[in-house]
Design goal:
Elements: E1 4-10, H1 16-30, E2 35-39, E3 53-54, H2 61-68, H3 72-82, H4 87-97, E4 101-105, H5 117-127, E5 131-139, H6 146-163, E6 167-172, H7 179-185, H8 191-196, H9 203-217, E7 223-224, H10 233-245
Parallel strand pairs: 1-4, 1-5, 2-3, 2-4, 5-6, 6-7
Helix pairs in contact: 2-3, 6-9
C-alpha cells in the first residue's frame, strides 16, 4: 500500500496540533492500520504527540530570528523556507516505517505555509512519492454570523487551490460550537437568510462565495469533530480512506 500523507492545515487557533495528537491516539486504539505524525512547525513550543520527524531538530524560528535579526513573523517565514532543505530526511523517516497514514502538522499561522510558495513546493515534493490530501481545520466556535461561516469556507477552498490537493473540511471544537454554526451546519438556517440580516455592501458577493465554495467542495463531506472526546474521528478516517482509495460515495 502506498503511504497516504494528510497535510493538516487551517487558520491560527483552529486546533490543528490538538487534532493531530488526538487523532494519532484514537487511531492507535481503534484502527488496524499504522498512523504516525510529523511536526513541520518550527515555532511551536509544545506538541501533544511524539513525531517520527520534527523539523525543530533541524531548524527553529527562534534560532532563525537570532541569526538574521528578524521579528517573530519574519523568523517563522524564514524557518519554514529553510525546512525545505530537510525534506529528504522527512522522506527517510516515512519510508523507513512503511506507514499506512502520516499526518503532517503545519505551522500555526496558516499564511506562512499555505499562503506562500514554499508550502506548495513542499506538498508537490511529497506528492511525487506519496498519496497526499489536506485536512483543513476550522473553528466552529468562531462562527457567530453567516458571513463568518462563508469566510472560513472560502479559506478552505482557497487553501485547497493554493496547495493543489483535495482537502477535507473539518470543523473543530464541537463542544463549543455556536448556535449560528449549528443551525447552518445542520441545514436549519439558509445562508442567504442569514446574510440578509447583516448590514454591509458585500452581501451579494458573500452569496456568490458560498455558491463557489459548495461547488468546489464537490462531494467531500464536511466533518464536525471534538478533539477532546474524539467525536467525529471515525468519520474523518472514513473520508480519508475514501479519498485515498478513490472509491466509495463521498456524499
Amino acid at each position: 500500500m502506498r503511504t497516504c500523507v494528510a497535510i493538516v492545515h487551517g487558520h491560527a487557533g483552529s486546533g490543528k496540533t490538538t487534532f493531530t495528537g488526538s487523532f494519532k491516539r484514537w487511531a492507535d486504539s481503534n484502527l488496524d492500520v499504522s498512523v504516525e505524525v510529523v511536526n513541520l512547525d518550527p515555532a511551536v513550543l509544545h506538541i501533544p504527540y511524539r513525531p517520527i520527524f520534527d523539523i525543530r531538530d533541524y531548524v527553529t524560528a527562534k534560532e532563525v530570528m537570532e541569526r538574521y535579526n528578524l521579528g517573530p513573523n519574519g523568523g517563522i517565514m524564514k524557518a519554514v523556507e529553510e525546512s525545505e532543505r530537510y525534506l529528504d530526511r522527512l522522506f527517510e523517516a516515512i519510508d523507513e516505517g512503511g506507514y499506512d497514514y502520516v499526518l503532517i502538522d503545519t505551522p500555526g499561522i496558516m499564511e506562512v505555509f499555505v499562503g506562500r510558495e514554499i508550502g506548495r513546493r513542499i506538498v508537490d515534493r511529497l506528492a511525487e512519492r506519496y498519496a497526499v490530501i489536506g485536512l483543513h481545520i476550522m473553528d466552529s466556535s468562531a462562527v457567530t454570523k453567516a458571513s463568518e461561516y462563508i469566510y472560513f469556507k472560502s479559506l478552505y477552498v482557497l487553501s485547497g487551490l493554493r496547495l493543489g490537493i483535495p482537502s477535507v473540511p473539518i470543523w473543530s471544537k464541537a463542544d463549543r460550537a455556536t448556535e449560528v454554526f449549528a443551525r447552518i451546519f445542520e441545514g436549519r438556517w439558509d445562508l442567504r437568510e442569514g446574510l440578509s440580516q447583516e448590514p454591509g455592501l458585500y452581501t451579494e458577493a458573500a452569496e456568490k462565495l458560498s455558491e463557489i465554495s459548495l461547488e468546489l467542495q464537490g462531494a467531500v463531506r464536511e466533518v464536525l469533530i471534538d478533539s477532546v472526546s474524539m467525536r467525529g474521528f471515525d468519520t474523518v478516517y472514513d473520508v480519508l480512506h475514501e479519498l485515498f482509495c478513490t472509491c466509495g460515495d463521498l456524499t
